Amino acid sequence: GPEFSGVPRDPGDWQEFVYLAAARYRGRIPAWGIWNEPNLPRFWSGTRRQYIDTILLPGARAVRAADPGALVGGPDLAHLSSADWDSWLRQVIAEAGSVLDVVAHHVYPGGGGASDVFEELHDRPSWQPYRTTVRDVLQASGWWGRPFWLTETGVESGRVGWTPQADFYEEIVSDWYGPNPRARWMDRVFFYQIHDPPAPDTSSFGILGAWPDLERKNAYFAYANATATTPFVDGEVIALDAPAYVLPGAVAEIRVTVRNTGTESWRGAAGYRLDVVSDRVAWQVLEHLLPTDFEVPPGAVAQALIPVQAPWIALPSVATATVRARMVAGDGRRFGDPITAVITATQHRPAQVLRQPRGGTVPEGRTAVLSLEVASDTPADYQWRRNSVVLVDGDRVRGSRSPRLELSDLDPSLAGDFDCVVGNAAGPVVSEVARVRLGTPAPRRPSAPVAPAAARGAPAAR
After folding, report:
1. Do 142 and 189 meet the contact criterion of CB atoms below 8 Å apart?
2. SS3 letters for 45-73?
3. Is the separation of the CB atoms in 232 and 218 below 8 Å?
């Protein structure tokens, strides 16, 4: 397809690219947005179906595999009626909402004022009673109350002037965090952009002028003043520790660790609490209220134990739920980025990986063998993956559905990060990652006899 907007010939190529990017910046990039404004032909020449199946779902799987702690956001649609933003958003949430941590969206003002943005988000004007807002779609789709980020908004100083641009910034921040906020249901607001591009590009969205002068516009000072003086409530859920498997009907204790990253103290007496929810109604969150004497000052860390009861199920059923934790302010607003854990109720024991696959460096053209040892009370199945992409047997790949994987005639197309998904009647577990790289291993002279590489679980080079 066309360069820049074309559909990948193979979704696996795209998935591997996303995996390598997320793995490279593991732990340093907290959130990834999957594509930009796919409802515009300029950015995506494929269909909506192709975006979901070829881009969003494989991309989310890749991020999850490469950096489980990172958030996945999307679909970052352009808010244009001519681009069917509302039908796009409904379908993406319905068919791919399970892979998203955050729904992200772009809204720019038609007339240059902040009120235009809020009308599109939630303030339907009286003279357009049937106009669809973003909030309407989120509520109808069941996403309401879950994280929403306005990942692009802004105005051009060259179109409206420096002072109106500054007013726009000030009004957005005050409506988001002011004394009578209308927009606190939004978790994050991103302004576009920091500085103008160099000439001859005429875009003027920046709050600074073009490089190298970076002249400060009025909007820069309005934004700096607003962010420095406006009290705000924010938090970070550092960890959500939950058992991966429990017996049916058992109560799982979930330990949640939170940090206050805002400017206000959290007080239980003022209604602050930890919000723990399950995506399955059969799983009961027994208690998530915090003591009235609970207080977490800015910068402090606190822990809470939340009991969650699994449903009663009959053999051979397995019940899985995603549990999500966030903080809730006294006015009912949820805040802080989400964190999730997956819990499975089963009467079977999950498979246990007794010996993990081990990677290493293998000379190009040789054969590498990866293997693992598993204990399982019920029949187990295996699926090896390379850079999060499922492997299938072929001329150079053998054993992709067995405990022993053989890679022959090794070259860059077969080197990478390998893991194995092991499933049994309880559900899947994933092995540790084994990294196979090309090159010549440095020689070493052991002081005592050493078992062959294959026996130790490292890649065997032949």
Report:
1. no
2. CCCHHHHHHHHHHHHHHHHHHHCCCCEEE
3. no
CA 426, distance to chain mean position in Å, is 26
Q: Which residues contact 369 (CB under 8 A, 6 or more apart)?
A: 404, 405, 406, 407, 454, 459, 460
Residue 10, amino acid:
D
Q: Please name which of 123, 119, 202, 125 lies closest in space to residue 156, comparing C-alpha atoms.
A: 202
Q: What is the pLDDT of residues 268-327, one digit of tens each?
A: 888 898 888 888 889 998 876 666 678 899 999 998 888 999 999 876 788 999 988 888
CB 201 within 8 A of CB 209: no
Please tell me whether residue 136 adopts helix, strand or coil conformation. Answer: helix
| Residue 379: burial class (beta carbons within 10 Å; 0-12, 13-18, 19+) | exposed
Give residue-wise pLDDT tens across range 237-280: 888 899 999 999 999 999 999 999 999 999 988 889 888 888 88
How far, in Å, are 141, 227, 380, 382 from residue 428 at the CA level?
A: 29, 45, 9, 9
The amino acid that residue 312 corresponds to is W
**Exposed e or buried b per residue across 31-50, where buried means at least 16 C-beta atoms within 10 angstroms of its C-beta:** bbbbbbbbbbeeebebebeb
Instruction: Write the DSSP string, 185-223.
Output: T--EEEES-SBPPPTT------SB-STTT-PBPHHHHHH
Q: Which tokens hold the place of 45?
A: 């020449």
* Residue from 382, 361, 362 nearest 429 by CA: 382
Most confident region among 231-245, 326-340, 403-417 by mean pLDDT:
403-417
- Rounded CA-CA distance 153/172 in Å is 10
Give 334-389 pLDDT, tens digit per residue.
Answer: 888 888 889 999 999 999 999 999 999 999 999 999 999 999 999 999 999 999 99
Checking if the pLDDT of 456 tops 60, the result is no
Mean pLDDT in residue range 125-144: 90
Residue 442, SS3 per DSSP: coil
- Give me 118's structure tokens: 């809020």
Query: What pTM does this model have?
Result: 0.89
Contacts of 175 (CB under 8 A, 6+ apart): 114, 118, 181, 182, 183
For residue 68, give the amino acid letter.
Answer: P
- Cα angle value 427/433/435 (rounded, 5°): 150
pLDDT at 297: 95
